[in-house]
Amino acid sequence: MNENIQTKLSALKTKVNSVEYLSCNLSKWDDVNAMIATIMQKYGSLDGIIHAAGVIKDGFLWNKELSVFKQVLDAKIKGTENLDLATKNIDLSYFILCSSIAATNGNMGQSDYAAGNRFMDDFAMLRQQWQQLGLRKGKTLSINWPLWRNGGMQVNATAEKWLLDNWGMKPLSTEIGLAALHYGLSQSGASFGLVEGQVDKVTQALEIDYSEAAQQPEVQSKPKVVAAQVAKTEPSTAVTSTSDMVGQLQEDLTSMVIELLKIDKNDIEFSDNMSTYGFDSVTFTEFTYLINTQLELDVTPLIFFEQETLDELTEYLLEDFADDLIQHYASRIESTDENEVEPPAETSAAENIAVEAFAEAQTQPHESLHTDYIVDELPPNRTHNGTENSKEPIAIIGINGTMPQSKDVDSFWNNLLNKKNLITEIPKDRWDWKKFYGESDLGNSKTTIKWGGFMPEVDKFDAEFFHISPLEAELTDPQQRLFLQSVWHTIEDAGYKASDLSGTNTGVFVGIGSSDYHELLREQSSDFEAYSVAGWMHAVLANRISYFFNWSGASEPIGTACSSTLVAVDRAVQAIRNGKCDMCIAGGVSMLLNPGVHVGLGKAAMLADDGRCKTFDHKANGYVRSEGVGALLLKPLSKAQADGDHIYAVIKGSAVNHGGHVNTFTTPNPKAQAEVLQMAFADADIDPATLTYIETHGTGTALGDPIEIQGLLKAFKNTANKSAQMPKLQEYCTLGSVKTNA
Hints:
The protein is α/β, with parallel strands linked by helices.
């Protein structure tokens, strides 16, 4: 028992007859059971439970040890379970769980804390049901508390000011907190939350419909909000030349870190991960506030998901807020002549960016919006090498496809125009979803995902027409059969006979990933036939096409998950441009035939349990798996024009890259996404300001969608052509994603 607890107990003893303090580890059943037994033996009864214990170990998920994550969860989950079990036969009046607003809204660096508190909310509803059945005694209530002014978890004035400015929240006063407790006990519900602060800001930040909330009885009239005074770190000495801006920014960031974490300047290395200094969700929020107020910027704590070191933070601020920083430091920069704005002979990449931007701002008038941007030239090794025709546009002269509930591309287009939802429950000719339906857990093969987009008549195939025996056709993956049919129809759509292209240097590049049919065959029979291997190998898919049509160009399957077909198109474009192929078939195929992947992705929380992919929506909760097959016939534009081909569209450029090593294996990399767009813009030799539509990946996930938008914004900003004029301000580039329909 520490001195603080002793002081509080002494104060209580002046108001009540008896106060006894017992301590135990709530996560250990034996400790909790022994404590409750001691109370019952000594006093004969127990009126109620208030579970207010909690542990906070802030940090990004990818940096947390399992033991730390478990410690935070145990205080909430095991503590709740143990207290309930130990008191299940006691005639309680109330069983109160002190949850947190983090359970409903989350908080950066507190995934474990949010999950533990959300468990409390759900458990309260379960225990209330038990109470109604006579299995438990006493009112059950879980309260989503905000930060208390006089509670055990505190923040400093900087964080308090940030919460008020950005969320409209202020620390909860004891008076209102106790009134809320009595209010909750008088209501029939098992859980509720509350916030003290500015109603308009709070309802907007938490996405609450205040018109409904206002109909509920108020705990207390809205108190006056008083902003906390923030001790502002004094800026460092003024810069004396433009080349000092990088150093000045680093000095200011260093001062902020020292102010926040109270560490020695000599302990700060700009190349170290900031989490090593002791940053957590609260101090990252405070750091954000200092950056915004002292440097006059507008950033959010989300930047620390991507910028993990002070070096990366410095470079990010210089790249994305160059003009703002120039303006901020301008009052502290002495006037210099033109020679002084030249960068020194040896500077870092970040210094070059800053100095060039500053010099440009002083020497060029801002005639268009483009002059505000910094142009990053693509590294020489990122350009596409090839022949003199390596930049020639590629024409699409034939097209065919089958999509969910759409027998061809015209049907699919009409379904999109009519805003038709093409998602259905999983049909029985794929698998019986009811056998796998249920809450997923370790060791079971259950999922609540029962939705998908499915092609019609996938079992139809004219084996004789394609010179395939009935047995071989039966053992051949339907993906091979469907793509073979699609290629035939693509050639017809282009106005050619298959024999017209026989013997030509035509390539085949096809995106494919799953091997569901192979798994089905293994489950159905242990016998292997001569055709079994050829029937499911992905390499055979592409080569079967080349064999049947007698083509001698490259023939390759592409397996890069969601990007497989786009990568196949890129490979085909480069093969034509480099003179390796005269024409190419590029396409992809995907079928859902086995529940294994479906269950696995459902357990990984990647799929939307309501069957709707809500791209760029705040309610986004995953995507929906769908089937499809499609093929394009590609040809150099000049050759297509000379041959009088019908041209659907022209591919002017393409690019492929990888996200590299990021925080987790499945985390997107906005820098890499921006870079691949820049490469594509350069390859196509276009000004992105002229684009009017972008079909996005749009996975409908809380992390993927914002990162994709961030990558797009970064790419547009970095590749803006300074010599071009922006379109009129009322023009815009539309973003879309077909995933919302199919």
